[in-house]
Amino acid sequence: MKNLGILLSGRGSNFEAIADNVASGTLDAHIAVVISNRADAAGIESARRRGLNALVIPSKGKVREEHDREVVAALRERQVDLICLAGYMRLLSPWFVQQFPNRILNIHPALLPAFPGLEAQKQAFDYGVKVSGCTVHFVDENLDQGAILVQKVVPVLDTDDDHTLAARILEQEHIAYSEAIRMVLEEKYAISGRKVVKKQESSCST
Q1: Can 163 be counted among the known catalytic residues?
Q2: pLDDT digits (tens, 9 = 90+) for 10-36
Q3: pTM over the 0.85 mark
Q4: Between β-strands 189-192 and 195-198, what pairing exists: parallel, antiparallel or unpaired?
Q5: Is there a contact between 133 and 93 (Cβ–Cβ < 8 Å)?
Q6: Which CATH code for domain 1-100?
Q7: Where are the alpha helices (DSSP H) in the chain?
Q8: Contact of 110 with 158, CB cutoff 8 Å
């Protein structure tokens, strides 16, 4: 069974969705550690309530790479196979990313490459798009630019505001993230340039 490391800074709703899928057996993985850079993150309290290994590694006042080295050491100590960013409000240094090539996932609440960065749902709503959604992608050295694994489309309703749109996108995030994790852990993908291609199940005939 593969080990997951979850990094979060806030409420951790995507972490909770992943943890629920692990607990129910729909995701065949073990959450080896949950790490936050903020002691007051609700996600850390949730991890502790679930009996998971929860660590706070404060980032305040530290040089980025110094903090990243502490986090990487904790992940390596627990032999993490795949890292999932779940509302982790820190940009990872290039050095961090290089330690885990194609082994760091992030979820973004818009259809990348549109609306990268913060408040993506509000960006999309304010722009007047007719559809939005979420994207699970590999993390590379550039913000929200890694190869895309899974996207879910959410229509923008005439009755929406940015908050109701964000809530419906979040529902799809919870589905998309575990789908992408399963693809990676089961190695059911190949990368060609920027394109992630899902491998088809092979069928045997007698």
Answers
A1: no
A2: 999 999 999 999 999 999 999 999 999
A3: yes
A4: antiparallel
A5: no
A6: 3.40.50.170
A7: 13-24, 42-49, 64-77, 94-99, 120-127, 162-185
A8: no
DSSP, collapsed to helix, strand or coil, labels residue 55 as strand
Fold observed for domain 106-197:
Rossmann fold (3.40.50)
Q: Which two tokens stand for residue 148?
A: 């895309």
- The answer to whether 148 and 196 are in contact (CB under 8 A) is yes
Buried/exposed code over 14-24 (b: 16+ C-beta within 10 A; e: otherwise): bbbbbbebbee
Quick one: tokens of 4?
């997951």
Q: Which two tokens stand for residue 93?
A: 């240094």
Question: Domain residues of the chain, as ranges?
Answer: 1-100, 106-197
Q: Computed over its alpha carbons, how large is the radius of gyration of the chain?
A: 17
* Dihedral sign, Cα of residue 97, residue 21, residue 15, residue 57: negative
| Dihedral over Cα of 75, 79, 81, 86: its sign | negative
Give the whole-angstrom CA distance, residue 43 versus residue 52. 11
Given 67, 108, 137, 174, which residue is catalytic? 108
**Amino acid letter for position 118:** L
Strand-pair partners of 83: 5, 104
131-181, pLDDT tens digit by residue?
Answer: 999 999 999 998 899 999 999 999 999 999 999 999 999 999 999 999 999
What is the arrangement of strands in the sheet containing 104-108, beginning at the earlier edge strand?
54-56, 29-36, 2-8, 82-85, 104-108, 131-138, 148-155, 195-198, 189-192
